[in-house]
Amino acid sequence: MKVIICGAGRVGYGIAERLAAEQNDVSVIDTSAELIRTMRDTLDVRGFVGHGAHPDIMAAAGAEQADMIIAVTLYDEVNMTACQVAHSLFNVPTKIARIRSQSYLHPHYMDLFSRDHLPIDVIISPEMEVGEMVLRRIALPGATDVVRFADGNVAMVAIECLDECPVINTPLSQLTELFPDLPSTVVGVSRGGKLFVPHSGDQLMAGDMAYVITTKEQVRRTLGLFGHDETEATRIVIAGGGNIGLYVARALERKQSRTKVKIIESSRDRAVKIADELRRTVVLHGSALEQKLLLEADIDHADLMVALTNDDQVNILSSVIAKQLGCRSNLVLINNPTYHDFAKTLGIDAHMNPRAVTISKVLQHVRRGRIRAVHNVQRGAAEIIEAEALETSPLVGPPLAEQELPDGMRIGAVYRNGEILKPSGSMRIKPKDRVVIFALEGAVRQVEQLFRVSLEFF
What we know:
Layout: E1 2-6, H1 10-21, E2 25-30, H2 33-42, E3 46-49, H3 55-60, E4 68-71, H4 76-90, E5 94-98, E6 122-124, H5 126-139, E7 145-149, E8 154-160, H6 172-178, E9 185-191, E10 194-196, E11 209-215, H7 219-225, E12 235-239, H8 243-254, E13 260-265, H9 268-277, E14 282-285, H10 291-296, E15 304-307, H11 312-324, E16 329-333, H12 340-346, E17 350-352, H13 354-366, E18 371-377, E19 382-388, E20 409-416, E21 419-421, E22 434-440, H14 444-450
Parallel strand pairs: 1-2, 1-4, 2-3, 4-5, 5-6, 12-13, 12-15, 13-14, 15-16, 16-17
Antiparallel strand pairs: 7-8, 8-11, 9-10, 9-11, 18-19, 19-22, 20-21, 20-22
């Protein structure tokens, strides 16, 4: 696939790195010669210095032969214009744009992005995506990661196995026997920095990160089975009143719950603005690194500190200070992947990477076959994929036990006619089934092949 990426920042680099590793033909455009030089030196991509929406630069990058344009510059208007130019002048089939301003994303104005106006096929709003992730983490405090599939009916939950976890040192096959009515499947395990697909005879160990696929109704029961019965936070302090912080606070207010939220915002003008927009949330002006201000926000009695500023170091340090002052747990936004490895040792309970969210959204449209959703796991080491089976899909027909499935994949759930089925060796995949799969990086291409549209289909 030939892909043009407009924007060579962190998000653009992450997308280019992933696509280039999968042998796609990638061209990157950015006004910064330094960023383009870094791209060329470290990745197998072509780089072009110039404005991403200018027709001559786009032509030089090969827009006439491009299958997709991904516009992820810092400016919404540049991203939108780049998609318009790609459509009007070069007839690029798929156009993806990052749109950050919530004004453009208001439901009342969404007709703006139709083919008759601004022809953008996929809109990515990292702020909204991360905001939703924060809300899922707040609702399920025992989960390290939560992603929904199959119209929200299936959930993938990443669960840390602590020393007191009831299911450690027990073969996975025994768990199925002990809880036959629980539609939960352990599809992946991360142990000592290595990610693998477990077999029925494997056991979970203390320190493992288990990736479990289950139904939305059974998420809390599954967490309880793994020893995570933490109560939902009702006293929350948010560091950072930007788009994400405001989105989360608004959503919590709409729930009409008993949750009390306080926001700490360093910009006085921004603090005044969001205070006018929020009804029940207390907004404090100042730095989240100031202990006096944190205590003023009652951090010593808070259940959760959510750090969402644009500065990784502020997010990490403020969360560490919050726990030292008595806050029960923290959730931190970290952009720089180099910080992820030692976040746990600093006292960070859970963290999120907005770049990973964006890359997952893009991969959903790069994947071949009837791929409905993709979630990137551990910087591309694996993917959770939701795919629709067609009549000509190789997976359809024989029982799963008789099929030669790739070693690095495991089916977690099948969504059929509104019902969620737990996979077994006797199960037969039917056309229109939506299959949720955990696939290691090396097996992703083979999974795609299982859901490719055969020529016989036409």
